[in-house]
Amino acid sequence: MQNIETLKKTDMNFSDKIYILDTTLRDGEQTPGVALTVDEKMQIAQKLNNLGVDKIEVGFPASSIGEIESAKKISNLNLDSTLVGLSRSLIKDVDAVLDANLDYVHTFIGTSPLHRDYKLNMSKSEVIENAVETIEYAKDHGLTVEFSAEDATRTEREFLFEIFNNVVDAGADFLDLPDTVGVLTPILTHDLITDIKSHISSPLSVHFHNDFGLATANTLTALECGVNQAHVTVNGLGERTGNCSLEELVMTLKVSYGIDLGLDTTRLYSLSTLVGRLTGVKMPVNKPIVGDNAFAHESGIHVHGILNNSSTYEPISPEMVGHSRRIILGKHTGANAIKSKLKEFHIDLNDSQFNNVFSQIKDLGDNGICVTDDDLVAIAITELGSARETPIILKGLSLSSGASVSPTATVKLEINGVVKETASTGVGTIDAALNAIRELIKDSIDIELEEYNIEAITGGTDALAEVFVIISDSFGNQSVGRSTNQDIVMASILAVLDSINKLLIINNSH
Ligand code: KIV
Ligand code: ZN
Questions:
Q1: Which residue, judged by its Cα, is nearest atom 1 of ligand 1?
Q2: Ligand 1 mean position to 231 CA, how many Å?
Q3: Span from the CA of 22 to the centroid of ligand 1 (angstroms)
Q4: Of 143, 169, 197, 265, which residue has the fewest beta carbons closer than 10 angstroms?
Q5: H or E segment at 408?
């Protein structure tokens, strides 16, 4: 990792210990359309534990029997992370957390005028009373308590101080500031946290939503101002547009400030993939850290830099988060990228063959087509093939089939100048011809038909048929063959031979 010393500010006030409370299983599960089974919650909790997060909010036990069951099952995994259960400021919710065998309760109540007047229909003193009574009950039952002033960022500052002072007196161990609808900015966060810290000395936490795309930036600012804990979710999942993203926050702290939270960051990508698969919420390709494009490069200038020293265009190595690098071929691709890909696929081209492949890829790119690795191999093989003698030529074919005879094909091939002929049977005439070809070429190559597609490209009984096949050999090479003919069997056999010839050319090229 490159040192960014010159960018570091000196007036940061990070706490010595920063706790990460992951709420993927609670706020993350509140992502519209997401519902996790008990088993899925257990898989995610295990992975969060292996990553090394301090606390995992496992759910909202009072909301369903299933939530209590999943919390109990996660408790039985005996994880190192502290398990947390959400509770409204209600005694029955704390009882559900106790039923779920959890030792840490996260109580909350709406504190803003909007929540007091339109949701709770409570006065300020009633809100304080409920919060205090619930915390006292939880403390009497031996729980560690974190208290959230829901919608804290739209709550009158004086009232926020008042309720925080009251819940601290009632025994709250951690105070959390939710930016419930994500209206903070970094500067506003700085002012809020500085003000709160000058009035309250209890451990502070933040829970920031991402409605304007600022959740990670605001959480980082709160940490810079000395808060002790950040609520995060994997992939930034959560209500509406989500919460602060775990992977973004952890990696920014590590890379930009050199703050190592002790997490095994090489597990971030696989955790993100698991959560994406189980929740059905796939990450956009440009999602920082875990998106498909986080370590993908196309432009010639960038790929050249990356191939010489990956730090030129990557702030961290993909290995650091368990991701991988991809070189994409397209209209911005330079010769170096294509050469490195061809090397990867063991394809040797001379200069003029290479120049032809290079210009074809540029042409495709100019026409808006992104070239996949398979396309590159097909283009390169075709280039190799056109420069050499075709090893196998079809010299003759006769077919017989009928109600009481097995379909039979007699195939005559010229293989490297030697003519050979054989007959085989099969489940149909195409299968019979393929068996005959396999028999005739068995000394040169062992093949497997991986894919066979046929399409009529004109109408009527004399329609032209286009056959497309993918064939593999015993070395794991694959090639695509194509042919168009009015006779389906002939189109199939010519496509198969086209593909086999390409494989033979590739094998002879090294
Ligand atoms: O966003 C929020 O306010 C919450 C609370 C329950 C803490 O998720
Ligand atoms: Zn939330």
A1: 180
A2: 10
A3: 13
A4: 169
A5: strand 408-415
Q: What's the pLDDT score for residue 386?
A: 64
User: Residue whose CA is closest, atom 5 of ligand 1?
Assistant: 150
Ligand 1 pocket member 205 (CB < 6 A): no
CB of 148 within 6 A of ligand 1: the answer is: yes
CA atoms within 13 A on the CB side of 194: 10
As a whole number of angstroms, the distance between CA 3 and CA 256 comes to 9
3-state SS class at 77: coil
pTM, two decimals, is 0.76
CB under 8 Å to 92, separation ≥6 — which residues? 62
- Residue for token pair 């534990």: 49
Cα end-to-end distance, the chain, whole Å: 38
93 Cβ inside 6 Å of ligand 1: no
Helical (H) or strand (E) element with 253: helix 246-257
Q: What is the position in ligand 1's atom list of the atom closest to the CA of 150?
A: 3
Report DSSP letters for 190-232, one per residue.
HHHHHHHHHH--S-EEEEEB-TTS-HHHHHHHHHHTT-SEEEE
Query: Which ligand has the shortest distance to the CA of 178?
Result: 1
Rounded to whole angstroms, how far apart are CA atoms 348 and 69?
Answer: 59
3-state secondary structure of 117: helix
Cβ of residue 40 lying under 6 Å from some atom of ligand 1: no
Residue whose CA lies nearest to ligand 1 atom number 8? 27
pLDDT at 370 over 80: no
Helix (H, G, I), strand (E, B) or coil at 444: coil
Instruction: Give yes or no for residue 478 CB within 6 A of ligand 1.
Output: no
Residues with CB in 5 Å of ion ligand 2: 27
Pick the atom of ligand 1 nearest to 27's CA.
8
Residues pairing with 110 in the sheet: 150
Nearest to 182 by CA among 157, 158, 153: 153
Structural domains of the chain in order of their starting residue, each with its CATH number: 15-279 (3.20.20.70), 296-384 (no CATH), 388-509 (3.30.160.270)
* Cα angle value 46/53/170 (rounded, 5°): 115
Q: Which residue has the higher pLDDT, 5 or 249?
A: 249
* Candidate of 207, 208, 229 to mutate for ligand 1, largest count of ligand atoms within 8 Å of Cβ: 207
Count of C-beta atoms within a 10 Å radius of residue 124? 16
Q: Best mutation site among 26, 111, 148, 241 for ligand 1, i.e. most ligand atoms within 8 A of its Cβ?
A: 148
User: What percent of the chain is predicted at pLDDT more than 90?
Assistant: 68
Nearby residues of 375 by Cβ (< 8 Å), 6 or more positions away:
329, 364
Q: What is the pLDDT of residues 276-319, one digit of tens each?
A: 999 999 999 999 999 999 998 888 788 888 888 899 999 999 99
Paired residues of 400 in beta bridges: 408
